[in-house]
Amino acid sequence: MREEEIEKLRGVVRDCVSKHLYSSAIFFADKVAAFTSDPADIYMQAQALFLGRHFRRAFHLLNASHVVLRDLRFRYLAAKCLEELKEWDQCLQMLGDAKVDEHGNVSDIKDSNVMYLDKDAQDHEINISAAICFLRGRAYEALENRAQARQWYIAAVKADPLCYEALEHLIENHMLTCNEESSLLSSLQFCHEDGWLSSFYTCLIKKQDKENVVEAKFNDLEKENASSTPSDSPFTGTLKNNTDLLACKAEYYHQCGEYQKCFELTSLLLEKDPFHLKCTLVHLAAAMELGQSNELYIMACNLVKDYPQKPLSWFAVGCYYYCIRKYDQSRRYFSKATSLEGTFLSSWIGQGNAYAALEEGDQAMLAYRTAARLFPGCHLPTLYIGMEYMRTHSFKLAEQFFLQAKTICSSDPLVYNELGVVSYHMKEYKKAVRWFEKTLASIPTSMNATWEPTIVNLAHAYRKLKMYREAIKYYEKALTLSTKSLSTYAGLAYTYHLQGNYNSAITNYHKALWIKTDDQFCTEMLTLALAEESHCDPDSIPGLLS
């Protein structure tokens, strides 16, 4: 057969693959390989078999080839076949011996003579070494060696920053702490034309900066193409309405406690792309925080219908039952989600929270500890373990776990708030004041009602230290954020009472009782303040106020 006829058949194979006619591609690729015996055509045949899901046959074909151990393409595709067959040890063996250190630096032992015989290689293809490192990471993760998996994923991203899948696994599986993620990105070598990608990656990782800094990063990225594209270019679009970028922004709003802004943004995004699963997860979390049970019910029904085998669907069902306070049903569906995918962090935390709501502390701890083991870069499981210890009045243990959470993520104000609460319970009021002030200083956005309890706690701590002016200042600041808090009015009234300002105390006791008419503390203290104001039984005050 003439060369032009062979080349025509190769074109037919490529066209069949592009049209997803895999049986046709396999048929013609087999004939081309028989005519030529060229390694490139054998590889094309194996590729067609792989796409047609004939993994065992594709592996046999590659393994029988005399170049399988010398051509990285053959070796990589053979390992991909073993990946699909879930034969992870053989997959690692096929990829060859190599070592990687904790910083992702690779040292090959026996691969110095390998080739990469790709006639159709493109200038901007992803480095084959990065793909091999990523596949090693996948194999180690499947074998539950997450430490090795983490190192190989880092190696993959370092080998080629375009290997997004490796970065995605590091981020989504919380394999790195906040500082480690930032350090990894700063070490990557991007080409000049890939500057936008570097900016995009910084939006994907955990964000520790203040709101104005993060918003500036989003704005710069949204304007990226407009500022760098020549005026005569046909490509004049920007990333402003890109779904992935908007999902990152929504995730940041949720992280900052801006749940309403997050919910509005995810609602708009899901109208545009209703099957964007990352956005769906953030939308569910925001709806949970806002108590949107109807929205959760609709989302859960649609997800179970469209994706019955995905853990996200059953997580949504669990969220709905949690929102309507049916914690036992909620726990069951969170458990079903984790059984479908053991590395779904949200379901582990949801399961722990449901057990905690049922006051089943041991089961809650088991869920949180599993999450902490599986996701070492996420501080939330450790934080929840501390909260559970605090609920059972094991304050020293709680403090240890809060400090551990702080080492994982030093930018989360919630960690500092919990450290302040546990210090308050241990009667270490000066330390509590320091932690609460650190909380307020760490809030990335402008102050909102989410942080009103922290301000009230700070006021309580100042009151305990008999620093009444500071206490009153923070109680009044809390009232600017929420005027419906019983504890704020009661604390403010009590502080005025301790100062001897009975008129202000009486006014605020009345405001507290307007919110809850049968509050025993405010009723008793109001009676005492009224009696003291009219100079009745003045000797009783020092013994009663403490």
Automatic annotation (TrEMBL):
The protein's superkingdom reads Eukaryota
The alphabetical list of record keywords is: Cell cycle, Cell division, Mitosis, Repeat, TPR repeat, Ubl conjugation pathway
What GO biological process terms does the UniProt entry carry, in alphabetical order?
anaphase-promoting complex-dependent catabolic process; cell division; positive regulation of mitotic metaphase/anaphase transition; protein ubiquitination
Q: Which GO terms describe its cellular component?
A: anaphase-promoting complex; cytoplasm
TPR repeat placement: 413-446, 452-485, 486-519
For this protein, the record's Gene3D superfamilies field holds: Tetratricopeptide repeat domain
> Entry's PROSITE patterns?
TPR (PS50005)
Record-linked InterPro entries: TPR-like_helical_dom_sf, TPR_rpt
Q: What is the name listed in the Swiss-Prot or TrEMBL entry for this protein?
A: Anaphase-promoting complex subunit 6 isoform X2
Recorded source organism is: Spinacia oleracea
